[in-house]
Request: fold
Amino acid sequence: MDHVIYTINNKGDKFEISKTILDKISCNGSIAGKQILSDFTEDKTVVEFHFQRHSTCTSNILEYIRGDLLHIPTDVCPKKFRQEMEFWGIPENEIATCCFTKYQSFLDDEKTLWVLERDQNERHARKERVYVMSKGKGWKAMQAKIWQVMEYPSTSVMAKIFMVFSNLMVMLSLFILVASTDQMFHESLTDDQWNEYLNENDREKYGRKGAGSYSETMADKLPDLKSRMEYLIYLELITIVYFTIEIICKMVFFPLPWKDFLNFFIVVDAISLIVMYVDVIANEVDEREKYEESFVEAVKSLQIIRVMRLFRLLKHVSSFRILILRSVQV
Reply:
């Protein structure tokens, strides 16, 4: 029966195919192939096979089966086209090159949405677990209540106040970091600071004479150094103490299993705090570090990632979360 012409009838649209192409469809293990085999089982003389599939997708797929390129219709969602390909047993790598970029973009978007949905479900589940725990008694209940204040601003007035205060501390930290690079927030070294900077050999080298200050007696000899205004140093110490207490409290009052503790914002907090301590330790080990440019200054600039803390305000906004995920994927 090789000379027999078979017909695929899809909602009234008919496509003539040869016995070779029909065998190709019926033997690929697809749903369409199984339906054709089933029709053959019922009637050995059948030459027309009826389907109720998407018209445009089916037309493009059957044209591909008959030897044309496999194109995705411009007015069809790639997900729908993939369903039709699966029905007819067509692998994804058969899509024409001109359409594959569009299809790959769809796959990326689908993966992103899947991750967003999974993340949202996990966050909601964790929030519900913490809420249930907060209604109990004992240490776990106390942990849950304090964690709600620190992580879920919508749960109480206290949580909202904590969120505002925490963000103000973040902005203060960023202000100090930026101000420390601006000469407007620097001043000439005091005598105590010069004594701290100059070692005994330097003092003999510059040989200060007279009762005046260093700047008055040796202005033409001393290196051109300035230090941050003193109030910036004290403000920085306040932020270090605050962020240290905050991260310790998060570790102590986290009520869920530790595998759920780490997230993007916790990592940002930890890195920023470590950088601040590196700067403090470096200044204590070598007091000249306070007044000279060094590698520590470059490391200190990593504190700028703390600006990501402000994005916590947007972490429930889908468009922001999509932006972050796509950025990571790229």
